[in-house]
Amino acid sequence: xxxxxxxxxxxxxxxxxxxxxxxxxxxxxxxxxxxxxxxxxxxxxxxxxxxxxxxxxxxxxxxxxxxxxxxxxxxxxxxxxxxxxxxxxxxxxxxxxxxxxxxxxxxxxxxxxxxxxxxxxxxxxxxxxxxxxxxxxxxxxxxxxxxxxxxxxxxxxxxxxxxxxxxxxxxxxxxxxxxxxxxxxxxxxxxxxxxxxxxxxxxxxxxxxxxxxxxxxxxxxxxxxxxxxxxxxxxxxxxxxxxxxxxxxxxxxxxxxxxxxxxxxxxxxxxxxxxxxxxxxxxxxxxxxxxx
Amino acid sequence: xxxxxxxxxxxxxxxxxxxxxxxxxxxxxxxxxxxxxxxxxxxxxxxxxxxxxxxxxxxxxxxxxxxxxxxxxxxxxxxxxxxxxxxxxxxxxxxxxxxxxxxxxxxxxxxxxxxxxxxxxxxxxxxxxxxxxxxxxxxxxxxxxxxxxxxxxxxxxxxxxxxxxxxxxxxxxxxxxxxxxxxxxxxxxxxxxxxxxxxxxxxxxxxxxxxxxxxxxxxxxxxxxxxxxxxxxxxxxxxxxxxxxxxxxxxxxxxxxxxxxxxxxxxxxxxxxxxxxxxxxxxxxxxxxx
Amino acid sequence: xxxxxxxxxxxxxxxxxxxxxxxxxxxxxxxxxxxxxxxxxxxxxxxxxxxxxxxxxxxxxxxxxxxxxxxxxxxxxxxxxxxxxxxxxxxxxxxxxxxxxxxxxxxxxxxxxxxxxxxxxxxxxxxxxxxxxxxxxxxxxxxxxxxxxxxxxxxxxxxxxxxxxxxxxxxxxxxxxxxxxxxxxxxxxxxxxxxxxxxxxxxxxxxxxxxxxxxxxxxxxxxxxxxxxxxxxxxxxxxxxxx
Lengths: 292, 290, 243
Fold this sequence. Notes:
The complex is a heterotrimer of chains A (292), B (290) and C (243). Chain A is an all-alpha fold and 292 residues long. Chain A is 74% helix and 2% strand. Chain A has one domain (11-216). Chain A has a two-stranded antiparallel ribbon. The N and C termini of chain A lie far apart (46 Å). Residues 285-292 of chain A have low confidence and may be disordered. By secondary structure, chain B is mainly alpha-helical. Chain B has one domain (2-214). Helix content of chain B is 71%, strand content 1%. Chain B is built from twelve helices and two strands. Chain B has helices at residues 2-29, 37-53, 58-79, 85-105, 107-110, 132-155, 157-167, 169-173, 179-205, 218-228, 233-245, 257-278; strands spanning 123-124, 127-128. In chain B, β1 (123-124) and β2 (127-128) form a beta hairpin. Chain C is α/β, with parallel strands linked by helices and 243 residues long. Chain C has a domain at 3-90 and 161-241: 3-Layer(aba) Sandwich (Rossmann fold). In chain C, 35% of the residues lie in helices and 24% in strands. Chain C starts with a strand and ends with a helix. The mean pLDDT of chain C is 86. Chains in contact: A-B, B-C.
């Protein structure tokens, strides 16, 4: 019965990771560098929601909408102010990664300064007694999280598959130069994927704060998970990233059967390490993700 | 009173010079974007503290701190031998995180989040380095040897090979040089520096806990190296002094103590971003960041 | 027979870059490798120098199988190459490059802590001037012109102890003056009896320089033999002279 419970816990964690990972991999696919500050976008989103909902007293859904808009804007700002100038100078991916870590530390500490170190909670949906399903306890809230995440992921997938922007994004992801020759403005598409990816991070933050507390450092853990999920699945592929994230969520929760729970976060890194070393193209074997 | 404060600052500057010069060897000279440096720092601090508390003489714990850190450096290079660029950087960042988790969770050895208190001040050949002024002397001597060592290494023909690894590893291999060996050695020296810096740090503060070695602390050392300039030892020394002094100005602004930490981190992050955007060579660098 | 290649095959994903190639390079002879772009000429050099592992085939040097040797080990037994797009260490000086090519003493870690031996600046200076590089040896490589870098690359390859030179389009991308200079250098090497494999597009120059010509097409060895026979072949004339 423990197994079922761990599996359910894995699904819940996986849903959140999948949302983080899908935004991350949307950005990665067109931009081709590791935007490590993506997790901190989720943190900023969480504090935005806290501000709109708890401090300003807006209706929850309006607050959530405002949150998504503001994280989208944040993504755009990061791209325009930091990444675009660096890209124009033809900086290597390693330098872009360092810049993104700088951004991450900056935003994390900004949140710490503005909102303080104490943990915030939203308490929008009161924690209710869980329902028993095949011996596992799951709260209605958790069901909502899983369902919403799945719905959103389907929506994102359909979006990239069938809309004009989605197709443009895939074209740039496939071959930036070729897409430019075909008349696409690659920089603009890259900027748009930052907006979109960061918007998805905003959605993720809405779901996260329904269940978890808000802390300035929450983003670091989330990007590690999201990134690992993306690597496991094949970094530039959306379905791969989602699959990898659920896998990570489940492995992590089963892992604490053998390991002290403090190591839960390290499991992700061990998996990340293994995949980077053994199969950097991910389980789906997408080799495009790997460039020097 | 003010003297005590200045001595305290100078000791910290010394520790960070050792750390930064070591990191510049791997990042600046060899071109390995090593984000595992903070883990080596921590490994050195814990090794030295634990050994010393177990009764091992200081000078031996001090060297073993460097040796153990450099063995982990070797392990990291072997593990990541097929990775390049940002993937290498991420793997080393991962290493830092795993090491941090171990500090936090291996409670039998590290006491976890409680940390290790009461690390004795060092005793060298029967002389107890109890007051801060003699500690500063000891730190200064260490800094001198580390800087001379790295400087000699970097300016020799061997050092030119390290720079060649950075500029074009494949071309260097095709000139008949075993670049893996070069990278491993460079990383080991770099980690050794971080390890003894960790030992210096632990015995000075006399208390360590995992939070001093978290991921975000790497930003400080990376910022120092980038601001000083890649492959410039002089730059790293100058930038260490600069970067450690800037946040001290915050003491004179009436900031509540809870805000000093985050403000410091914000300053470092902004400086790092500025140097990446505005002056990619850093202050004294001869090599462009790419 | 210095180097012999048998049934060498290399695939990248679905693309076959080298398809069952067999040939040999003779001691003291110059072999030109010609063929259209994408024929696999550079991949062939990459395979000989150890950059890409073979899918199939055998490669022997001095009658020893070298398949298990890494790139740097192959360089140290005397297989030295240059690149079509110059690859040098852009932040190092000319003298650093020359010193590197001389031996592998410099890779010894503890040796680096001893005082440095004086480098032979004057000898370096006259050496590079014999290649037509009129710059001080302390010049950093990124400050050289492309033609000068191309010359320096050749100078370094020759400085490295070698028994086989792999030259990948040594005259591509340089102006007519430097092209003439490099061609003269190559003719001198021919006189000295060096063993060279060279990728080259200029058919007239190949006719003058080469003792043997190998034509690659789509990863296959289309033809090989003496220049006069190979270059008279109808298929080669069609491909190169457009008749």
